[in-house]
Amino acid sequence: MRNPCEMFGEYVFNDAVMQKRLPKETYKALKRTTEEGRTLDPAIAGVVANAMKDWALELGATHYTHWFQPMTGITAEKHDSFISPKGDGSILLEFSGKELVRGEPDASSFPSGGLRATFEARGYTAWDPTSPAFIKEGNLCIPTAFCSYGGEALDKKTPLLRSMQALNKAALRVLKLFGNEDVRRVYPTVGPEQEYFLIDVEDYKKRPDLINTGRTLFGAKPPKGQELEDHYFGAIRPRVQAFMKELNQELWKLGVYSKTEHNEVAPAQHEMAPVFSTVNIAADHNQLAMEVMKRIAGKYGLVCLLHEKPFAGVNGSGKHNNYAISTNTGVNLLEPGDTPRENAQFLLFLTAVIDAVDKHQDLLRVAIAYAGNDHRLGANEAPPAIISIFLGDELNEVIESIVNESDYHCRERMQMILGVDVLPKFPKDNTDRNRTSPFAFTGNKFEFRSLGSSQSISGPNVVLNTIIADSLCAFADELEGSDDFTNALNSLIRRVLRERKRIIFNGNGYDPAWVDEAEKRGLLNLRTTVDALPYYIAEKNVEMFVKHGVFTASEVHSRYEIKLETYAKVISIEAHSTSDIAHRLILPAALAFSKEVAKEAELKKSVAPGLSLATETALLTKLSNETEALYQGIEALDNAIAGQSAISDTLEQARYAHDVVLAAANEVRLHADALEGLVAKSYWPFPTYQDILLYN
User: Is the CA virtual torsion 91, 95, 98, 101 positive or negative?
Assistant: First the structure.
């Protein structure tokens, strides 16, 4: 294996490459754009494009593409070669500034949520110079924003960049009040932990439910799952270790800071975690990581599953969004320091986060609401659907002292003493971690733990950036008009913490008592996607997005419509797959095995009339009852599916999908899984959970 330092970023048009290949003034102009948020100088585009082309050709690239992230949640690309014809029948290799800055993919078939008519096809991609270009499978990929002919954002990147701009503007106002005149830029940083399953490709090919939907629509609980907790952090299987090794190498070449790898709780489940990056780059890198995972897995006879709940009865997969706010001078604004009670700047930014999360708990729930994640949220494996903040003992005591205007005694760092002389003593953290909290402070950052494993991190971070910017703006408005900054600051922090204290919960989020306690506090408990999505277009939320220039009102409504439509379509696909598999595979298997049992009983009766047929009779009765119930369930599901297509209103269709179609599909599964426990393995039409999860 090559030295990681040698391979890291070799396929990235990064800062080191730009310094080497761009004229000095061009490089400086581009850096002003990427580091200070200045408008891109059009004059430099041609120079950058030519240098980018030469670099890409040297690395074997023949095509370029504007790599963008439409509202499907995945990435999109259209490849164009560098060739241009000459009059003599030969070719030139060209790439112009215009081609770098702007592309024109057909936008008619991407989700728009009513922003445009289907026949209106023109869309534009615009170069994002803050995220470096890279080479993937022989193509120069240029990260871009994607918009309609009318300028409406049709992607995930554009609102993310807008929200970063809003947060920067608001945070700079506050920092200037503290005398930080040297800070020119504030930006959020994120490290998204990525969970995933790896299963054998041959098992995958035999499971039409996995192929169609990404999750198993059928499957009885195996004799052994995760009960012994022997997979978590356990020795990694050789085939999986080989996959992880190549995954790291490929990600490092693409400039992705892949850092941590380990087995997760469920059998066949794993995790990859990167080092923090600016949120825009982190979002691009996470999309790349998911894509590379799927590609590399195939080389080892594996399939990478990113669905939030591919297997019932074992833990699903999430994505932990570790969020901090940094300055261009290298300061983490969520770093409490050794004396957080005396760190006024930290306390104000902490208060802004608390204020934002409490005021906009609905939007944070909306940000992680979709069909796949509904299988995780609220279960005792993932954060509850109720949004709350965990701060830990020390910060909680700090806040209590502020709210109650009482003395605070700084905690001493305790030493961890393990009672064995040869083991080292080391300082103990001031608080434990709380894995049941959806939004937990973990030392110098917040971990938004509720994201689903398959989703883009852009949406949740758009919400985080915007709601924090909104609170910071309100704080700046109040403090800028005060005659006594210190008194006004102390008063503001104390008042807001008193008002927002209800959102802080340091207990067990899995405890059923928390549901009742949260209701008493007035916190929302939006259990499903359908419960949550109407809050997206609440007047206060639309006004906030518009105020900070993150979305127009029509863009908010379009995303609401897309989320509803996507939810209903996912449930519909799952329902059709459930009906098809149950009818064409499971029902025939149950009938065939029943026939075999009946045949055996007849043979036994003819050979030895006096022998008891109690076993055969009991088994046939169970098989007959479950088979009949399965058939009736399929009929009911088919009727439910027909009813969904008759509803035109998107919200009502989504509600019907959850309340009627999903419920009917679950009933079919109930009887199919019961049959799995009765039918001989040789008759069962596809691999079981035990086959899939405990492969070699």
Answer: positive
Domain boundaries, the chain: 4-155, 163-551, 567-693
Give the single-character DSSP code of 533. G
Whether 310 contacts 267, CB under 8 Å: no
H-run or E-run covering 631: helix 614-645
Q: What percent of the chain lies above the pLDDT cut of 90?
A: 73
Query: Do 121 and 108 form a contact (C-beta atoms < 8 A)?
Result: yes
> Does position 684 have pLDDT exceeding 90, yes or no?
yes
538 vs 602: CA distance, rounded Å? 67
Q: Are the beta carbons of 446 and 332 closer than 8 angstroms? A: no
Which residues partner with 278 through β-bridges?
A: 189
* Residue 593 φ/ψ region, left for φ over 0, alpha for ψ in the -120 to 50 degree band, beta for the rest: alpha
Give the largest CA-CA distance in the chain. 104
> What's the topology of domain 4-155?
Ubiquitin-like (UB roll) (3.10.20)
Per CATH, the number for 163-551 is 3.30.590.10
pLDDT at 423 over 60: no
DSSP-assigned states of every residue in 30-44 = HHHHHHH-PPP-GGG
Query: In 3D, which of 452, 94, 133, 103 has the Cα closest to residue 281?
Result: 133
347-376 b/e with 16+ CB inside 10 Å = b?
Answer: bbbbbbbbbbbbbbbbbbbbbbbbbbbbbb
Q: Tell me the average pLDDT of the chain.
A: 91
| Closest by CA position to 469, among listed 145, 128, 153, 173 | 173
- Say what the pLDDT of residue 435 is: 75
Query: Bridge partners of 262?
Result: 271
> Hunting for tokens 């208060």 — which residue is that?
351
pLDDT beyond 90 at 432: no
What is d(CA 67, CA 49) in angstroms, rounded to the nearest whole number?
A: 15
β 415-416/426-427 pair status: antiparallel
Burial 312-339 (b: 16+ CB within 10 A, else e): bebbbbbbbbbbbbbbeeebbbbbbeee
Whether the per-residue pLDDT at 33 is higher than 90: the answer is no
Least confident stretch, 87-101, 242-256, 274-288, 632-646: 87-101
Say if residues 33 and 129 touch (Cβ distance below 8 Å). Answer: yes
Mean pLDDT, residues 672-689: 97
Pairing state between β 123-127 and 102-103: antiparallel
* 400's tokens: 């209590």
Is residue 319 within a helix (H) or strand (E), and if so which, with residue range? strand 318-327
Instruction: Judge whether residue 403 has pLDDT over 90.
Output: no
CA 517 to chain centroid: 28
pLDDT value of residue 411: 58
Architecture label for domain 567-693: Up-down Bundle (1.20)
**For residue 358, what are its two tokens?**
């409490």
Give the amino acid at 653: Q
Residue pair 25/143 in contact by the 8 Å Cβ criterion = no
Quote the CA–CA distance of 426 and 417 in Å, as a whole number.
8
